[in-house]
Amino acid sequence: MTGGILLDEIKVDHDNIRDLLERFKDAHSKKDEDLCVAISNTIIREAAVHSDAEELSIYKLMEKHGMTSVAEKDRSDHQEVKQAMAEVDTSTQALHADGLATHAKRVEKACNLFLEHAKEEENDQLPRLCAALDGDDQAKAIDDFLKARKMAPTRPHPSAPQHGGATQKAAGAAAKAVDELSNVGRKFVDVKYRHSDGSPSGTYT
Q1: pTM above 0.85, yes or no
Q2: Can you tell me whether residue 198 is helix, strand or coil?
Q3: pLDDT at residue 2 above 50?
Q4: Residue 63 CB partners (closer than 8 Å, separation 6+)
Q5: Quick one: what percent of the chain has pLDDT higher than 70?
Q6: DSSP letters along 39-73, please?
Q7: pLDDT of residue 203
Q8: 121 vs 171, which has greater pLDDT?
Q9: Is residue 156 within 8 Å of residue 85, measured between CB atoms?
Q10: What share of the chain is helix, strand, coil (3-state, %, to 5)?
Q11: What is the C-alpha to C-alpha distance for residues 153 and 168, in angstroms, rounded to an integer?
Q12: Are the C-beta atoms of 72 and 117 separated by less than 8 Å?
């Protein structure tokens, strides 16, 4: 069982999106389209994996500890993020048609939605949840979150189930198989921050 603080583990993903957004802005300022595409693909993947992992583990835990309304709000936030990231995904594949400036606006919009949600989790929701958990409970929650990341789809699926459980797991497994085929040939960049399981950047299998 993994030790550590649940908030720190989840914040790894938040910090990676923060870092990737800054790297994207720098690449955009230099008009480096190839790097912008690789960073965009990585943002899409990291946001998709993170969102599904939270829905499969953390939000179910919130519901067990009297935070059902918080979990529902977070799922609603995720729906907005997934839709925005799906638009980024489409735009990334049509970059030459849409133009880099239009694409950049979509990337920044999607990342800002993600980070607004992340800030609320970090400043309020996760500290409240962690306060309700003892050390063993937090360690189990971290393990569940890390396992869920490995099972999660790597692209956004706004129409997929979001309430955890067997239905979302089955849908996620099917989507992940399709996503992996779609990702063949796509370029990615390494992420800066790693989880406590030490898995290499971009390894979710």
Answers
A1: yes
A2: coil
A3: no
A4: 71
A5: 83
A6: HHHHHHHHHHHHHHHIIIIIHHHHHHTT-HHHHHH
A7: 46
A8: 121
A9: yes
A10: 75, 0, 25
A11: 11
A12: no
Report the greatest alpha carbon distance in the chain.
52
pLDDT at position 159 is 57
Domains in the chain, CATH or no CATH each: 6-183 (1.20.120.520)
Residue-wise over 32-61: b if at least 16 C-beta within 10 A, else e? eeebbbbbbbbbbbbbbbbbbbbbbbbbbb
Q: Sign of the C-alpha dihedral, residues 191, 192, 194, 200? A: positive
Residue in 40, 103, 49, 102 with CA at minimum distance from that of residue 78: 49
Helix/strand/coil for 199: coil
Tokens of 47: 């946001």
Task: Name the one residue in this structure whose structure tokens are 């995904």.
Answer: 89
The pLDDT assigned to 97 comes to: 72
> How far, in Å, are 44, 62, 73, 92, 176 from residue 21 at the CA level?
11, 29, 24, 15, 24
With residue 21 as reference, give the H or E element that holds it: helix 6-29
Q: What is the token pair recorded at 17?
A: 């999106």
3 state DSSP class of 157: coil
Distance CA 13, CA 54 (A): 11
Structure confidence by residue, pLDDT tens digits, 23-35: 999 999 999 999 9
Q: What's the CA angle centered on 43, arms 204 and 117, to 5 degrees? A: 100
State the residue for tokens 């899409």.
44
